[in-house]
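Appendix B.2, paired examples.
Example (i):
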Amino acid sequence: MENPKLPRIFVIAIFSLVFIVMFGSSMFVTIEPGEKGVIFKRFAGGLDKENVKDQGFHIIAPWNDMHVYNVKIQETFEKMEVLSKNGLSIKIDLSFRYNPVPNEIGYLHDNIGKDYLESIIKPEIRSVTREVIGNYLPEELYSTKREAIEDEIESLTRAKVETKYLTLDAILIRDVTLPQTLRAAIEQKLKQEQEALEYDFRIQKEQKEAERKKIEANGIAEFQKIVNRTITPQLLRWKGVEATQEISKSPNSKVIVIGNGDGDLPIILGSGQ
């Protein structure tokens, strides 16, 4: 007897297979390492901003959408032409590192969208860079205050993008291009300043050496004064007596005449065997 349940199971299986083929790509979502996801629920309140999905495999309703964001630190390069404090045109190459705040991508998607690099980060960096460099002279940007300018651009830009669910990791000025005549003049000025510093260093070194020699000479003179005060005729006579006693103990033959040497010291005559 034929089982009436078999056709029904067969129909369900066929229907399920067709359903999976048609909607599987939207139902099964894999979030890779370094990514976060947020679901747009078409019939249940829209974007679920608070429920951020972590990496891994997820199943969602076919009528919902999973919006996946790369939350790793990314790097972008930018070329700009700006004006210095004295109105000269300067070309600079920047690089900057950034990423979305991982747990706030729902708000980022709702308020800004995935094009945040072009709509938020780049415009803010361009605006702040022009504003900051406009306060400095070309030679300061080219040499002496480059790091301080980087820090100022970075801190001002970070304060602006952090209110928009983004993080700025760093901004670097990779290259500065000045007009050739200006660049040559700055390099010549830097060379002269370096030579002046080297000259000052040599002068200071010579002054310190002269001071050292003076101190050394004073020390030697003071030592000689002390020695002259302590070496008296009585001390020399006593040392002579001690030396004579030591010589007299020697096995070599000698003749000792008492009292006719300088300072009444004994005289040693003859030695050897």
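Example (ii):
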Amino acid sequence: MLHIIVGDEAAKNLKAAFELDENLQGEILVLKDTLGIGDLLSTPEISHDSIRTSWWKTIVPHFDEEVSDESRLMAFIDNAIEQEEPVCFWLSPCVSDVCAYYWLLSYFKPHSGLLHTINIIGLPFLNEKGQLFYPINFSQVPPKEFIKTKRLLKEVTIAEYEVEIDEWKRLQEDNTWVRLYEGGKKIVSKPMTYFDTFIKNSVSDEMQKASKIVHESMKKITQTLSPAYIEYRLKQLLQQDVFQFNGLVEGPLKEIEVKNKGNDETSNDIVES
């Protein structure tokens, strides 16, 4: 069997599970991108990978990688067909996994019977201390617990393709920059400013490093999210003169200090490199 899983940390646990149960072993495609944020609207002329790379370069000015999930997926599917091996997508209750699942469906639909899932949404596991918990992604699942999930392997049915493939189309049509997980396989679209409240609640009346504000904001957010997006939104708020700050807006977070604006404080002189 071949495997698709989202994120390096989740893949690390899956690889460790291979060492405990050789029946699980197989090639792994690790999806690096997180589809819970950012532009999704690819076209016949512009590929998914190109759209995603362009978006990441928008929020991370020095982003020097190329998103390659789609190109690697196409080669992976060809390999699965050639080897006549089923493919298992590991699905957990987080926005990145559910969005990735919807994204995958259109690629696998022409190959009936190829795609399977192991879906742990709503299921309890035991942590390293033997305590019951409900993981929000596979990076939290101990390798020995992966083995117990084999019985959950299920082929994606024609009916599921017909109904659920439209969810990806809906997300593309919404094409907001923020998507939230709301239980089951439900994803809702939110405006790009959705997480600004978390940022504002992390800024105090005393100057503090912008990096600390990003860290405190991330602690308040229960969704799977890249800190790069919170950094981007914080800098957007600085450019909009929402906070008092010292430093260059385009500079590194560790060189920016931020606090709430007092009634007697004037606007910042925003300096961009």
